[in-house]
Each structure stands twice: as C-alpha cells, then as structure tokens.
Amino acid sequence: LKWLNQTVGEYSLDVAIEKLGVDASMEALTGLKGIGVKTIGVTLIEALGVDLCPVDTHVHRIINRWGIVDTKSNRDKTFALLKPLIPEGRAYSLHHNLLTFGRTVCTAKSPKCGECFLRKLCPSAE
C-alpha cells in the first residue's frame, strides 16, 4: 500500500494501472518482496478486470505441452512469451478455460489424452 501511495498518490491499484499502465504497474509490483507475476496477474484480472492470462501451473503445463513455448519450469517466461500471442479481449477467458482444462483433461499426472478434442494437434498426446 505504501508503494501505491508513494507512486500514484492514492491507495488504489486502479489509479496505478490508469496512470502507469498494466506493464509498468506489473514491473513495479514484482519489485516488491513476496509478490510474483502470477499473483499480480490474478489480482489484476479478478479485482480489476484487466485482460491478462496469468500463468499458473496448469497454464504453464498446457502451453508447453502444446509446443507454443518451450520454457521448462519458468512460468514468468511463459507469461512474457504468451502475452503478445493472445488477441485483445481474450486473455481472461483463455486463463479460466485453460485452468479448467488443466484440472480436468490435461492433468499433470495421467493426462486424459484419449478424451481430449485436441489430441490430433497436440505434440505431447499419448
């Protein structure tokens, strides 16, 4: 909160986004101890409706399995590479759809490739 007040003169993340923009606000917030890119992204999409696709374990796993990126265990790098690929206005729904897909079909252990409608396109399908 102190950062917000010092930076934008108010205790408002909305105002920070408005004055600094999403990218600059995210960059500044990641400089604060204990706050990562995913946490900031989830906060921005859920609290403020910002059009982002935060990269959690499910999104990271799926995007790497599909071969869209090859970032191994670096979720922040996945976020940076994925962000410009998402059409404007689609990131929020993509995030939530990938979460559901990752929890139900493209799971970490024993993915249900046989049930997946994308199996013919997926380079990782078993």
Summarize the structure in words:
- By secondary structure, the chain is an all-alpha fold.
- The chain has helices spanning 2-8, 13-20, 22-30, 37-48, 57-65, 75-82, 91-104.
- The longest helix has 14 residues, at 91-104.
- It is elongated, with a radius of gyration of 16 Å.
Main sheet makeup: none
| CATH superfamily (homologous) name of the largest domain | Helix-hairpin-Helix base-excision DNA repair enzymes (C-terminal)
Mean pLDDT: 93
Count helical runs: 7
Q: Helix content range of the residues, please?
A: 40-55%
- CATH class of the largest domain, named Mainly Alpha
- How large a portion of the residues is in β-strands, by DSSP E? under 5%
Can you tell me the CATH architecture of the largest domain?
Orthogonal Bundle
Number of domains: 2
Global Rg: 16 Å
Q: Give the overall shape.
A: elongated
Unreliable sequence segments:
none
The strand count comes to 0
List SSEs in N-to-C order.
HHHHHHH
Measured between the Cα atoms of the first and last residue, the distance is 48 Å
How does the helix and strand content classify structurally?
A: mainly alpha
CATH topology value of the largest domain: Endonuclease Iii, domain 2
